[in-house]
Hints:
The complex is a heterodimer of chains A (630) and B (289).
Chain A: H1 2-5, E1 16-27, E2 30-42, E3 47-51, H2 58-65, E4 73-81, E5 84-85, H3 91-100, E6 102-105, H4 119-124, H5 137-150, H6 168-180, E7 186-190, H7 198-215, E8 218-223, H8 226-232, E9 235-240, E10 243-249, H9 250-255, H10 260-268, E11 317-318, E12 323-325, H11 334-346, E13 359-371, E14 378-390, E15 394-398, H12 405-412, E16 420-425, E17 428-429, H13 438-445, E18 448-451, H14 465-476, H15 483-493, H16 510-522, E19 528-532, H17 540-557, E20 560-565, H18 568-574, E21 577-582, E22 585-591, H19 592-597, H20 602-609, H21 617-620
Parallel strand pairs in A: 3-8, 3-9, 6-7, 7-8, 15-20, 15-21, 18-19, 19-20
Antiparallel strand pairs in A: 1-2, 1-4, 4-5, 9-10, 10-12, 11-12, 13-14, 13-16, 16-17, 21-22
Helix pairs in contact in A: 6-7, 14-15, 14-16, 16-17
Chain B: H1 24-42, H2 78-114, H3 116-131, H4 134-145, H5 149-176, H6 179-187, H7 191-227, H8 239-245, H9 254-284
Helix pairs in contact in B: 1-2, 1-9, 2-3, 2-5, 2-7, 2-9, 3-5, 4-5, 5-7, 6-7, 7-8, 7-9, 8-9
Amino acid sequence: MTxxxxxxAQPGGPLLRVTDLRISSQLxxxxxxxxxxxxxxxxxxxxxxxxxxSGSGKSMMARAxxxxxxxxxxxxxxxxxxxRDLLELRxxxxxxxxxxxxxxxxxxxxxxxxxxxxxxxxxxxxLTDGDGKRLxxxxxxxxxxxxxxxxxxxxxxxxxxxPFQLSGGMRQRIGIAAALARDPRILIADEPSTALDVxxxxxxxxxxxxxxxxxxxxxxxxxxxxxxxxxxxxxxxVLYAGSVLERGDANAVEAxxxxxxxxxxxxxxxxxxRRLSELPVIxxxxxxxxTVAGQCAFAPRCAWALPPCREAAPLLVEAxxxxxxxxxxxxxxxxxxxxxxxAADHAGAHVLAARSSEPLVEVRGIExxxxxxxxxxxxxxxxxxxxxxGVDESVGLxxxSGSGKxxxxxxxxxxxxxTGGTLTVGxxxxxxxxxxxxADRRRLRRTIQMVFQDPYSTLNPVRTVGATLNEALxxxxxxxxxxxxxxxxxxxxxxxxxxxxxxxxxxxxxxERQRVAVARALAAEPRVIVCDEAVSALxxxxxxxxxxxxxxxxxxxxxxxxxxxxxLAVVRQIADRVYVLQxxxxxxxxxxxxxxxxxxxxxxxxxxxxxxxxxxxxxxxGATPAAEGA
Amino acid sequence: MxxxxxxxxxxxxxxxxxxxRLPVLVALATIVIAAVLACALLGxxxxxxxxxxxxxLAGLQSPSASHLLxxxxxxRDILSRVIVGARFAVLGPAIVVLGAAAIGTLLxxxxxxxGGWRDSAIMRTIDLVYAxxxxxxxxxxxxxxxxxxxxxxxxxxxxxxxxxxxxxxAATLEQRSLPYVDAARTLGLSRRKIMFRHIWPNxxxxxxxxxxxxxxxxxxxxxxxxxxxxxxxxxxxDWGRMLSDNLPLIHDNPLAALAPGIAxxxxxxxxxxxxDWAYEQxxxxxxxx
Lengths: 630, 289
């Protein structure tokens, strides 16, 4: 009934208008800014992307619009929908808008659905007939099947399935169907594909795009990926440390970004089609909004920053038709920025010199089976995989979740015990760590080390960086004398100041923690480092820094890498040879450029076509049925 | 949940952020605990009267200036006896807390980190202890072993330790799956170092918070035993004992029975409050975001 009351203020006006939205949280240290004065307009039927790295405040902004801020966080400003300010609404009124008028899709499909509710119930829970009465059981069942078909699920049995029985992609589709069940006029999607495999990501995104267009809904897509934003949305708004730095039509921003930060984001994204000798980087990390209050938020990391940039927060100024940038030097530096973009676009592929092929790590027909005991489910994680890593060689291991790529890495380190096959590392049989002599095991530890994925739990939270590194040094050389000095050298080697030794991990950004993790691995002076998705949890601008660090470490120390990742664009930058793994079996391998430019296996082709691209065709050819089991 | 949202006027907003200043309730509880500790340590030095001095002529007095809480039937000063009673109220529970934490930490870390047969053996033993009705076992054992406060304390340690072990095992399992533990393993650290240097500090908050709860529980349990006549010998200034000894005096000097009871409840509640608060504080330490 609320939809009858809500009228669009004036035809042709925006569907949703956010004015001067300021979000802050209250901590012991006082008030803490999350966003400072964000404006946003969404026209009917328009797709708007809000792009930002972690800490930009993009998710909080979405939550503020629908009144779902966590306790202790509050919003000021105006969120006008129709003729009402959503920030003023309470309780029932707000609940009616949420879901009824504005649908929401969240990032994590694994926790977004109630595990005790069948999928059909999620969709039809709040459906009513014209008089506001709840639908009959039969009508609900019919409606659930119809809605599922809309998101591409033709199997009616799914409506009766519980969420745990479905894959992540299927669950995300259920989430979309539930968000759209009451035919909202606006859909807010917060990183809807980030937690999914690459092949599923493309499918989910093209599904959302298709539904948005066919229903004429307004869409606010929150994402960290500019390429996804460009391919899906009409307009783009770039958020950084709580303020808008650039906004404009997607085509215009893609053709010529007018803010140094947007340009930086575009350049640091590893290109999928060629290898660069060094990735461009934006130095530093996303700052706390409070530390850059009253100045250009990007100034501390900006190559063009001048004193005036630090004197006042710049306003958005027109920089072309329907294109605005919050850079006071937008006119002066346009030429330089254009040149930089062109140089990057034409940067030649970096041709690799042939390396020696003396094998350092040899994996022969490795098998790993989990479970299989009486009554247990038997999962074959690795089924006869063989690979080799040469001295001073960087090898990529690519696959989606469940492909067994991480298990293989863990077997090499003795964190898992392979069920069959042989592993040889530096001439030592590493198939069974427990059976090794102490001396051999110690030699193995000094030959192979690992860097883990999650920067937030890879370091012990209660120990300082220095304690972590000291320990890593002393375990290999208990009688080392100059430990403090060696720790300082390690920190310097990974580009951190020696004073970081006294810090606890909580005081470090994600990229810095990952650098410490690299330093810890280097403490053993290993000959091979297994990097398990070492950059996938990092922001793009930081990811490039860590990739460059890994490249320089290899250059200087001659370390070999086994680089485990799902991201083919990253593999292109770091690996000499690549192995593609699908459900525990190798499907293809060869020199990196050969495999990526001319894939022979359909699965490799599917992976390559799933790398996000900026053009609209990327999604148009999208709804290819992804290789995934329900 | 939608009520906590976006309030234009900050006046009626309740902040639930973490790491604020000491909440009033916790401050009060801390004062109570400090007072009880002071009484336990200083005891005899700060009492207005000798707690055991009998004065039959001054029996069963109501509160007055010289006897703030009155006297019992033997003319002993109630206030002095409550103050001295704090010693038993702190000593026994403190032993239970430390003993149980030591046993529980060892069992929990080993079961959780090693897994396998050690885990099975430890957990089945713990299940067995769980299946025993604790207080009943104490009553029976004391009946067999012939009573006494410290025997009761020892039995409580033996019964509480395994229960803690189960809790610490769960916390250890959670930590064990984190990459920092894998990293320590790939460095080649010994299992003992990983358990005690890496995992233990991260399950510490739980051990501390649980210690406070154990304190409250064993204080009540020991007092109950004294009340039943199974703890301290008759005539001892112990809160549980006083409660039972002075119960018949409830009409003549109600405070003789109420005062130790109130002291008991206040201490137990204060311990719970501080325990919960300490957990929140410690759990935030070093945690990201």
